[in-house]
Design goal:
With 346 residues, the chain is mainly alpha-helical. The chain contains 12 helices and 11 strands. The model is unreliable at 1-21 (pLDDT under 50). It catalyses: Endohydrolysis of (1->4)-beta-D-glucosidic linkages in cellulose, lichenin and cereal beta-D-glucans.
């Protein structure tokens, strides 16, 4: 399905992208997740990163609460996000909130993936729950991102990771982008909210970028990529690695239901280690720097194997037992996608 067709489907077909959303995450799974990672005030806690909160986590929390059809928890997470992170004057969220910081916001710059997740979850909730206030907030964020974070470069529409820090005044090899910030399923929704911006072209550019960003013997993207030259290359001043950011790229591609099978196979083969663990790789030396065995990581490779080869998801990956915030989030997103769109994988 093209991006334009997806936009039309979302806004013209009643319930189109959210039909059946109540069943995607069980009440028990959401309870286990929220009890572990969501504070009483609605702060999503990244316990693998010093207990901070960030716009990405708030966005994930909103999306998962929506997929669990838990309106009170959605409202609680959004209330914290509005009060504590939406302090900029451009409708974008400050990305980092530190409980030990004074003030709590220790970096006021935005993170575009966090803004996309927040806007996407608000748009879904606004439509499915008939809450115009959520829709309006989503539209404001989409407009702001379209104005300040989307940009044209060599005929492609690309996404700045943040409004500041990645342009000509900040990076010697600008523009610098992060391929994992392309949340493909959200793009048609935000395109419908902000049709005057360049959202409709963003998915195609993201797929092209990931296809070309094939570094090292495993042909994997780096977390941070310069698109200054004729071909992408790892960005200067950042670790040259397939790292924690990039492990979610195949999941985003699969959740969009519009993934290139050859690209997905390349990513799956390059990132998967022994017993299905996801490997982090130094793309300069081709050395494995970590093997991630948490179910939340392994389910990404397993889901790719199902999509590519028809192999069902192992039983142990179907059971949600929260460990750390990030892999727990990825596992719930994978399980929700399987239940809604790929039941043959169970």
């Amino acid at each position: 399905m093209s991006v334009r067709a997806a936009v039309a489907a979302f806004f013209l077909v009643s319930g189109a992208m959210v039909c059946g959303a109540q069943a995607q995450i069980t009440a028990s799974e959401w309870s286990d997740y929220s009890n572990r990672f969501v504070s009483d005030e609605g702060r999503v806690i990244d316990d693998g990163n010093g207990g901070i909160s960030h716009s990405e986590g708030q966005g994930y929390g909103l999306l998962l609460a929506f997929l669990a059809s838990n309106k009170p928890d959605f409202a609680r997470i959004w209330s914290f996000t509005q009060r504590e992170l939406m302090i900029r004057d451009d409708h974008l969220a400050a990305w980092k909130w530190d409980p030990n910081g004074t003030p709590k916001i220790t970096d006021v710059n935005n993170a575009s993936d966090g803004d996309i997740l927040i806007a996407y979850a608000l748009a879904l909730a606004g439509k499915d729950w008939d809450e115009p206030r959520f829709t309006q907030s989503a539209r404001s964020i989409a407009d702001a991102l379209g104005t300040s974070a989307l940009f044209s470069h060599k005929g492609e529409t690309l996404l700045l990771p943040g409004v500041h820090g990645f342009g000509a005044d900040d990076q010697p090899d600008w523009p610098v982008v992060n391929p994992s910030y392309w949340i493909f399923e959200a793009v048609p929704v935000l395109a419908g909210l902000a049709p005057d911006n360049q959202w409709t072209r963003l998915s195609e550019s993201g797929t092209a970028l990931i296809s070309k960003a094939a570094f090292g013997k495993n042909h994997l993207p780096a977390d941070w990529v310069s698109v200054a030259g004729t071909t992408p290359r790892p960005a200067e001043g950042f670790p040259v690695e397939f790292g924690y950011n990039s492990v979610r790229i195949p999941l985003y591609l699969m959740r969009s239901m519009d993934s290139d099978m050859n690209l997905l196979r390349r990513l799956r083969d390059g990132m998967t280690g022994p017993q299905g663990a996801v490997t982090l790789i130094d793309l300069t030396t081709d050395q494995v720097t970590a093997e991630l065995e948490d179910p939340g990581y392994r389910i990404i490779s397993a889901l790719a194997t199902c999509v590519l080869d028809g192999t069902r998801i192992p039983q142990d990956l179907r059971v949600f037992v929260p460990t750390l915030y990030y892999p727990a989030t990825l596992q719930l997103l994978a399980l929700a996608h399987i239940r809604k769109d790929r039941p043959e994988c169970l």
